[in-house]
Amino acid sequence: MTIRIGKASLWHVHAWDYIGQAQQHPDTEITAVWDEVPQRGREAAEKLGVPYYETLDEMLSAGDVDAVIVDAPTNRHREVMIAAARAGKHIFTEKVIAPTEAEVSDILAEVREAGVKLTVSLPRLNDGYTLAIQDILDRGLLGRVTYVRARLSHDGALANWLPEHFYNAEQCGGGALIDLGCHPMYLSALFLGEPVTGVGANFGYITGKEVEDNALATLHTASGAIASVEAGFVNPYSPFAVEVHGTEGTVLYGTPDSKLLLRTKKDANASEWTEQPLPGNRESAFDQWVRHIQEGTEASENIAAAERLTRLMEAANRSAKEGRVVPLEQRNG
Question: What domains are defined for the chain?
Fold first, then answer.
């Protein structure tokens, strides 16, 4: 049975990417559009050849929607997802689930109560380099992890190709860190392999926007391992890069080539820098969502990572504002 999907806003820059995924999947189709900006919504609906609904409630109650893709402003995620859950609609959402841990808790409670399937777009968890690095860590080839560095940056604020509303602090909940920095943040938390006990952050405002366009967050752990999470809107040639260092070795990716390099004391075949094979990507978050709907399963790992992401982002924003490392209670990482 085809899953009929309503598009809940086209605010986010990846909105049309998710529409494309829905169009390409054999078991899903876009059947409706709502947008908090009527003109944008009407134009999208006309392009897609589907109805446009003036209000979210009208779309959710119209009878032609089984699920929603949420690309609304981040500060409206709670409102939109709770309405969708209460209407019995499955939810696929752009990261973050919401800007604060309290809002995330509210959303997840409603999702559980309604029994709908939620999946969050955390795409780099499914990429081959992530799977390969995790396998290296699982095999103990780096020994005890001591330092993680992950960086993602572009020149959107310099070249003015980001939409202006991406600099709206109220709508976004932040700037470069909560947008691009989400990816190095959830990867760093994964590769540390232990709960984060404190978060520090420094923000820069190079282009004078309302939100930061240059960001560094540090994650601290009880063992002494540290992660450096870097993001920016002001770097035209900064490669996506991951480094994981341990007591027995180091793995590097994307510095700048898309190669995975390992050097370790634990494997004679990698006693010098050695390129490692990359597996294929795991199925996309969108495809996982569809499968969970069809099979009645839960995206437990995905949701746990997304919960942790908001927790870390909220702490980083506090740290940058207050000028101190924000301690976190140890629970669930």
Answer: 3-116 (3.40.50.720), 124-281+312-327 (3.30.360.10)
